[in-house]
Amino acid sequence: MQEAQMQRADTELSGENAAYIEELYERYLTDPSSVSSDWQTLFDQYPKGDQPHSNVIEQFVLLARNSTRLQPMAQSSVSTDHERRQVGVLQLIAAYRSRGHQKAKLDPLNLMVRQHVPDLDLAAHGLSRSDFDTTFQTGNLQIGKTEATLGEMVNAMEAIYCSSVGAEYMHIVDTKEKRWIQQRLESARGIPQFSDKVKIGLLERLTAAEGLEKLLGSKYVGAKRFGLEGGESFIPMVNEIIQRAGSVGTREVVIGMPHRGRLNMLVNILGKNPADLFGEFEGKTFNKKGSGDVKYHQGYSSNVMTPGGEVHLALAFNPSHLEIVSPVVEGSVRARQVRRKDIGGDAVIPIIAHGDAAFAGQGVVMETFQMSQTRAYTTGGSIHIVVNNQVGFTTSRQDDARSTEYCTDVAKMVQCPIFHVNGDDPEAVLFITQLAVDYRMQFHRDVVIDLFCYRRRGHNEADEPSATQPLMYQVIAKLPTTRTLYADKLVSAGVISRADADQMIEDYRDALEKGEHVANALVGEPNKALFIDWKPYLGHTLVDDYNTGVDIDTLKALGTQMNLLPDGFVLQKQVQKVIDDRLKMQTGELALNWGAAETLAYSTLLNENFLVRLTGQDVGRGTFSHRHAELYNQVNGEMYVPLEHVKPDQARFALYDSFLSEEAVLAFEYGYATTIPDGLIIWEAQFGDFLNGAQVVVDQFISSGETKWERVCGLTLLLPHGYEGQGPEHSSARLERFLQLCAEDNMQVCTPTSPAQIFHLLRRQAVRPIRKPLVVMSPKSLLRHKLATSNLSELATGKFETVIDEIDAIDKTAVTRVVLCGGKVYYDLLEKRRELNLTDVAIIRVEQLYPFPAARLGQTLAAYPNNKQVVWCQEEPQNQGAWSFLAPLLYPVVYEVKAGTPVRCASRPASAAPACGSAYLHAKQQTSLVAAALGIDEESEGATSNGH
């Protein structure tokens, strides 16, 4: 019997009865005498500091499972029938807060199947309708009174939690956040009170949203526009976010969104001239150069006026890759916050719109949420809007679309509050929008609004949606629009006359037909101080020659400064040797290695007031333990970053080890680099091979963003690349993929082989007045290779050399074979040639593969008058690496120097995998390809030597 009682107590206290304990604990903290002596004795055991109440509840439940004292205490605390029912009332309140959303009327179509929620039944808590007139304590239910009848409380909770809004927030651990949300939701009683002026403003924005779609539908019949019909409440929602944020100090809003509703957003929120949009429908282009892009991928920027002042809006360009724009927006926001020194993240905020199916299905959404509170990527909270069409393209079955109840459940991973709202209730939409903005500004965390709506026209206007959703579209065909429903409501309430409501439609259409701006707060003469000035970086062409040297005394001073430590700072033994060696490199006692030259490049840029940002997995130390830009005290674990101490008031140096993501992180850095021009923004892959997890960022943004959208970007990618016998996934950064994407001077692809080269290459990327993405096939073994060294004088003068001629003193007239190569294989070739004392072979490094330095290479080859053949040597298999790209570029260069000279390739044989997994086979292949390149054994097994 006693065991049964204990099981019952354990079950109750593990479930909704936790609300009762929490209520008692709050009363105890305010006034210990307000609870019974038994409860006082129990609560006295716990510290009274600012700890989550859940900690106390968990400890109490644990006690319930292990203590025989519990049952008498519980019985004495709820000894009367009324007290037992009072416990049930508190349990019912907790149930509504936790599960009321599952009963909410969210679907405008009334097709959403809602399962019965037993926890919301009175009987589940020992109550019945006969208790409706009984007065109980309201606990912390925020309805304006400490006591109310059960009927009053149930009616209030039905209005708050089960009407047009379904709120999910009880999964949040932080009690302050939960109490704040409870107060805002419950004090409104689910019936927001707005003035007639606000209601008429809502109707005006709905009229604009609907009016644009109707005009486009009649003017351009059948043309794809991914219209907003069925989700018109999205426009007043975004308008309210901007206005409300602006009223509390926000000065910039960056918006990311997919196709659906984008044209509506451009015209009705950002103020794009309708005449320009019509021109795009009629085939005109407004791009000055490049390929351009379809109209529903276009970005835009403008300024609008808010109660708190002028706000700059930026709608990010984005491709048809669903959610990939989300981290791009975050990166742009972070860069704007840095530029404004917006420490709290209030001056610049992100709004990210999503489709329901994409929000649930795309992994980059989860990656973006995961970065939201990390040091490197936080932006102080994003406002997410899910335009929930309840169907993904043609998939409407929930068990096909996701494994969760809501598409938004993924947001719970970061304890994000989620507010579901019926899009056909514009006032509920407005209320939740205001709550979401205030939450974000109060707690600086992400918040999600799930706008339940529908698609009136299908995925696009060329689709026939009834083919796959016949029942849904039978309902939609009969359903009045959101604007119609709301206008009828306001007319019935006497807020506006029917004539005035109808006149709104005519006025808006007239403005569109005249090509007038229809955004309701557009600033005609924007404050240009809110803009980012890219003019100094536009209109330039890529040139090879750009001096990047630094005065040698400055180099020595910076190098010494970068390797001095605070007093008492104890380094790990191997790291101490790195620092000791770098100090010797400043005096010439040792030659500079890769890490020293790279660090000097950063320090010189910081000294010249260029921002430097470097992120990626393990970038502080460096995957291959070469950088050591972060130093750790072995005594107390404190971190010291020498590059943050170059000089007083130096430019910002941002160094962050990223979380284990490639796609979201690289997209973030792209967004950052397209927003801050005067800096060096670098993402380093742990291994270059891992970039394939972010290939969409390369394809859709880095390589083509300029030609599609005229978006200039100076992002640098450091991709460790080189065949070291580590297998298929740790050898190749897939050089061939980048080269395939190269055209129109869209980016730079380089294979530097010396510390001086990486020094000049990184500096060139920042100090040259042009911004193009830079892809560096960076080394692994060369970081400590005995031949891969430089001296300070090479850093003090000169530039990045796109082509490096033979370095050994050989007679150029005796050379009959010229080997061209890039990257780490150069040193394998050099050592083998020296070992064999081959005097008729010259080795030339092509350090920049794109833009291809044809003129420079031709000049270099011309110095070998008796050469009989040119060999391109690469470590990659013949079907990979640079050969396929370079071959058609090499032939005309070689032909112009000396017609008839054959061009061949020495490489690994063509392969489906990037590299072999056997160390033995790797070594055999490497030996063979080097031999084939040098002409030692043209038919070596494990290498190919083909050409024309």
Describe the structure.
Helices cover about 40% and strands about 15% of the residues. An eight-stranded mixed sheet has the order 3-9-10-8-7-4-6-5. It has a seven-stranded mixed sheet with strand order 14-11-15-16-18-17-22, with helices on both faces. Strands 19-21-20-23-24-25 form a six-stranded mixed sheet, sandwiched between helices. It has three domains: about 195-515, 3-Layer(aba) Sandwich (Rossmann fold), CATH 3.40.50; about 550-795, 3-Layer(aba) Sandwich (Rossmann fold), CATH 3.40.50; about 805-945, Rossmann fold (3-Layer(aba) Sandwich). Strand 17 (about 750), helix 28 (about 755-765) and strand 18 form a beta-alpha-beta unit. Helix 9 (about 195-220) crosses helix 10 and helix 30 (about 825-835) crosses helix 33 (about 920-935). It is globular and about 105 Å long. The longest helix has 24 residues, at about 195-220. The protein is of the alpha/beta class and about 950 residues long. The N and C termini lie far apart (about 95 Å). Mean pLDDT is about 90; it is low at about 1-15 and about 65-80. It has 33 helices and 25 strands.
